[in-house]
Amino acid sequence: MTARPRIGVLALQGDVREHLAALTAAGADATSVRRPSELDEIDGIVLPGGESTTMSKLLETFELFDPLQQRLAAGLPAYGSCAGMILLASTILDTRPDARHLDALDITVRRNAFGRQVESFETDLDVVGITDEPGAQRMRAVFIRAPWVESVTPDVEVLAQVPDGPAAGRIVAVRQGRVLATSFHPEVTGDRRVHEYFVTMVRG
Ligand code: GLN
Q: For ligand 1, atom 2, which residue shows the shortest CA distance?
């Protein structure tokens, strides 16, 4: 693997630019992905936040759904944030019956799980493999109509849970092999540690 892996950001909808900037800052050669042929040129992919049911439709419209699912099944490293987490999951609760998902991560997620009172909020998280480094600070996490992970299979490592408040204990970051997902949006805070973690995963 090259020192600067080429990482795509699915650029159909959502906060693409922020991820491109964060990946570049984290040491990747970042590029937008809109066409099936562009999938062949990347070492990893980020599925950004946005609206998961809309993104699932656009994946089909752009004829990306099946090729992306195949590349994920073949081991393409992926990081999904928020709507991206929903798209990667194997089971979605509270979604639309016609929405498709990529089935690359053995988790059950609940869309818009935090409910009306705390639809959007911020908190500081401990994240396994990131904030447990000596001297590291907790991570500021921004949740925007976010999903939570309702359950995981034994193959999935839980990386972060909400520390306190009404949603205390809810799982909000996970990893299974080469697939990483967070309910929150690290691309909006200037904290590059999640993107650096993913770049390291892709290099590995
Ligand atoms: N609520 C959105 C969905 O269900 C996700 C929100 C986000 O990505 N910020 O897809």
A: 51
Amino acid at 114: F
Q: What is the mean pLDDT of residues 164-171?
A: 93
Q: 88 CA distance to ligand 1 centroid (A)? A: 13
Name the residues annotated as catalytic: 82, 185, 187
Pocket test for ligand 1, best of 112, 149, 183 (most atoms within 8 A of CB): 112
- Domain boundaries along the sequence of the chain: 6-203
Q: What is the enclosing helix (H) or strand (E) of 87?
A: helix 83-88
CA distance 117 to 137: 28
Does residue 117 surpass a pLDDT of 60?
no
Residue 46 near residue 81 (C-beta atoms within 8 A): yes
**For residue 118, is pLDDT > 80?**
no
One-letter identity of residue 172: V
Q: Which fold has domain 6-203?
A: Rossmann fold (3.40.50)
Cα–Cα separations (whole angstroms), residue 132 to 51, 138, 165, 174, 200: 31, 9, 22, 15, 16
The pTM assigned to this predicted structure is: 0.96
pLDDT 10s digits, 94-107: 999 888 999 999 99
